[in-house]
Amino acid sequence: MKKSILITGGSGNLGRACIEKFLADGHRVIASVSAGKSLGFETSGDLDTFTADLTNEQNTTQAIEQVLKKNKTIDAALLLVGGFAMGNIAQADGEALKKMFSVNFETAYYTARPVFQHMLTQPTGGKIIFVGSRPPLQAETGKNMVAYALSKSLIFKLAELLNAEGASKNVKTSVIVPSTIDTPQNRRDMPNADFSRWVKPEEIADAIDIIISEKGKTFQDVVLKMGS
């Protein structure tokens, strides 16, 4: 069955893989791009894009309202926007915290909030997918990226809270937790790493497909770890 799928961070590596995956499967995709930018790649299918500063609550809310006005329903929302920064406690000052909080948590929260409230009114409910990370779950790793780990830790708690409210309305929130994603940027930044242990964006897109499909109707409060 054709679904309407919202994807934020459409121009990123994971965003691109998800857009291509769901268009190929015959779904309608609504993807966000940053102001002044395009997706950066050619594709075909039932695709619509919109521009929004997802770090700005008002701008995000207005953008989602326009998306819903045009599309009526959002069956699944893949909230993929995020950023990364190294830094232990000595380096994670207030500015570093605010930056990571804004790009990793606020972008997810400002988008999820209106989408979730809308999904509560849909007879079919809906699925929300967040991208988590391992540092919040592994203190030994997280100690070297404190601001990042703290910002991502809120994603897990937000998913729990949304599931507590959405369960009775068939609105389910999941968090995928990939290992290092195999992207050109990561290969450039970590040239000596074992790339075979990394997870490919296409593999993550396939996992998301299962979660939002009928096969994944039992997924809730899920933390899906991918890669080694």
Q: Topology, pairings included?
A:
Layout (H helix, E strand, L loop, with lengths): L3 E5 L4 H12 L3 E6 L13 E5 L5 H15 L4 E4 L14 H26 L6 E6 L7 H4 L3 H21 L4 E8 L5 H6 L11 H12 L9 E5 L2
Helix pairs in contact: 1-7, 2-3, 3-5
Instruction: Write down the CATH topology.
Output: Rossmann fold
Number of domains: 1
CATH architecture assignment name:
3-Layer(aba) Sandwich
Helix/strand structural class: alpha/beta
CATH level-1 class: Alpha Beta
Number of helices, counting only DSSP H or I runs of 4 residues or more: 7
Uncertain spans, ≥5 residues at pLDDT below 50? none
The N- to C-terminal Cα distance equals 33 Å
Oligomer: single chain
H/E element sequence: EHEEHEHEHHEHHE
Strand order of the largest sheet: 3-2-1-4-5-6-7
> Major sheet, described briefly?
7 strands, parallel
Measured on Cα atoms, how large is the radius of gyration?
A: 17 Å
- CATH superfamily caption: NAD(P)-binding Rossmann-like Domain
> Globular, elongated, flat, extended or rod-shaped: what is the shape?
globular
Q: Kindly state the number of beta strands.
A: 7
Describe what you observe in this structure.
By secondary structure, this protein is an alpha/beta fold. It has a single domain, classed as 3-Layer(aba) Sandwich (Rossmann fold). Helices cover 42% and strands 17% of the residues. It has helices at residues 13-24, 57-71, 94-119, 139-142, 146-166, 184-189, 201-212; strands spanning 4-8, 28-33, 47-51, 76-79, 126-131, 171-178, 222-226. Helix 1 links the parallel strand 1 and strand 2. Helix 1 crosses helix 7. The two termini are 33 Å apart.
